[in-house]
Design goal:
Layout: H1 2-18, H2 35-41, H3 67-91, E1 115-116, E2 130-133, E3 139-141, E4 146-152, E5 160-168, E6 171-180, E7 192-193, E8 198-201, E9 212-219, E10 222-224, H4 226-233
Antiparallel strand pairs: 1-2, 2-9, 3-8, 4-5, 4-7, 5-6, 6-9, 9-10
């Protein structure tokens, strides 16, 4: 009996060890869990708000970052702004013909042969006058009689400059005479001058690369094409 009992115990131990571990467990689910069920039970979820919008990135959405790119962009924007301003100025309604040509009321400002180089609106719209290249020392005349408002040897980039304020046909006219020779100014602030009176000599002072008169005309504070104005009034 002792042998039979011992043999039964040993047989039971062997049977228990030999069975798979899950053989002793019985599931209430007749089928094993599928991959979809495992995924759905153990999945991570992301909730997106209904008002969220998609953003598409393009190359145009990048901005300049290097100093060179920034300088180029700012220069281009400034040139475009000057061009727009020049276009607006050119479209301002006014009559170039203010007096009878050849009457002597309006005179050409350079008293000798000259060549027109840069005109009004050149350089991307930044050029507000007419450049008249002439020999250094050529007389510069007051184009219109009036009162001197500026007479300086160092008027910023304009160098030696004279500015004259006038009234013609009820309109305020300002004429500007920059880049003259140092020491050539013959008028002072507050002085009354007549058309054709010498105010200085052609030079190349200030921001200038050669002897010339940069002649500007403003009517009621609006810059106009000074060459057209001279052609219409000086004869």
């Amino acid at each position: 009996m002792r042998r039979l009992t011992a043999l039964a115990i040993v047989s039971g131990l062997i049977t228990t060890v030999a069975l798979p571990a899950y053989g002793a467990w019985r599931s209430t689910d007749p089928l094993p869990p599928s991959m979809q069920r495992v995924a759905s039970e153990d999945a991570q979820s992301l909730i997106v708000a209904s008002d969220a919008t998609q953003t598409q990135l393009t190359r145009d959405s990048y901005s300049a970052t290097t100093p060179e790119e920034i300088d180029r962009r700012e220069a281009a924007e400034a040139a475009a702004s000057r061009a727009r301003a020049s276009e607006r100025v050119a479209l301002v309604p006014f009559d170039y013909s203010m007096v009878t040509p050849g009457s002597g009321i309006v005179r050409w400002p350079v008293g000798g042969p000259f060549t027109v180089t840069d005109r009004f609106g050149d350089r991307g719209g930044a050029h507000m006058g007419t450049d008249m290249a002439a020999a250094g020392g050529t007389p510069v005349y007051a184009s219109l009689g009036g009162v001197v408002s500026v007479s300086q040897d160092g008027y910023g980039a304009y160098g030696v400059t004279v500015m004259i304020e006038s009234v013609l046909n009820g309109q305020r006219v300002r004429t500007v005479y920059p880049h003259m020779q140092t020491g050539s100014r013959l008028v002072s602030v507050g002085q009354t001058v007549t058309a054709g009176q010498t105010v200085g000599l052609v030079g190349t002072t200030g921001r200038s690369t050669g002897n010339h008169l940069h002649f500007e005309v403003y009517i009621d504070e609006t810059a106009i094409d000074s060459l057209i104005w001279l052609q219409a009034n000086a004869g």
